[in-house]
Amino acid sequence: MTITVLDTYPAMREILRAPRADRAALLKTMVEPAAGMYRYFPGDVDLVAMHAMSSGFPLDRDEERCLEALDALHEADAWNRIRRALDDAVTAQLAATPGLAIPDITVLTVLGDPGDRHFMGPNLGMSANGSVSGYLYLNFWPYPENLARLEATAVHELNHNLRYSPGGVIWDPATVTVGEQIVSEGLADAFARQLYGDELGYARIGVAHLRDDAVFEKVVSGLEITGMQNFAAWVHGDETAARYGGTPVGLPTGAGYAVGNRLVDAYLAATGRTAAEALLVDRRDVIDTALRTRAASTGW
Predict the structure, then answer these.
(1) Does residue 298 carry a pLDDT above 70?
(2) Which keywords are on file for this protein (predicted)?
(3) Which residues contact 40 (CB under 8 A, 6 or more apart)?
(4) Hey, where are the domains in the chain?
(5) Which long-range contacts link 116-119 to residues 24+ away (Cβ below 8 Å)?
């Protein structure tokens, strides 16, 4: 097992300083080592277009602002911190699940787009993806809160990657439920909190609603919904759903993360397991255990 954290700092610096006409080709070269993250997409994937759709730094504006932000990531030692965090997380995970097969993993770290209002606003300057076995995508704007959480964010995405790698939980787009993603977000946060504590381990977008019972009840009502096109609103909230053409359902940003944490925390408390030990737990076990705990409680 090898974890390769691509050193994208010099490449991004070169891209942002290059003539605009040359930037797309340079970006494609930078992203190609991680192109396997798009292997389930139909046909040939336009890596430059995917970069833009994922709120990656722009190729036609904000050069000086982006260069300053890129230097902030570099000065924060982002790439080395991410590498060390992933190594430590693998060690902790293998201690809890010694027989777990861990794939080779390639990590693509990029600077975000300061002109993307959704990314900089509701998403708080961070987006990431660890759902495709063998690849992690980390996109940051260097808000101080994000710099403090570099390790926790990487570890969160690693948890997703290991849950859905071969031999783990199967993500079938035709049958997967909202509940599976809600539970997976809770497990990933719980793993990050196991390693870095509650102050840094929670995904920032869910924190505001951790104790919101109305949000909890609403999300729980949708846990059996299938069809990935429906997930954005239930997991990320209405603003994200609207951005990507989904249907709002009346939920704030990060609702699914908040509820996932509550479900997983109740499950871990009831079973005495750690987040690492629960990596591959069935989402139904988590949900059923958590809801039984809630029904028996007078204060939760």
Answers:
(1) no
(2) Hydrolase, Protease
(3) 132
(4) 1-168, 170-300
(5) 116/55, 118/55, 118/239, 118/240, 118/243, 119/55
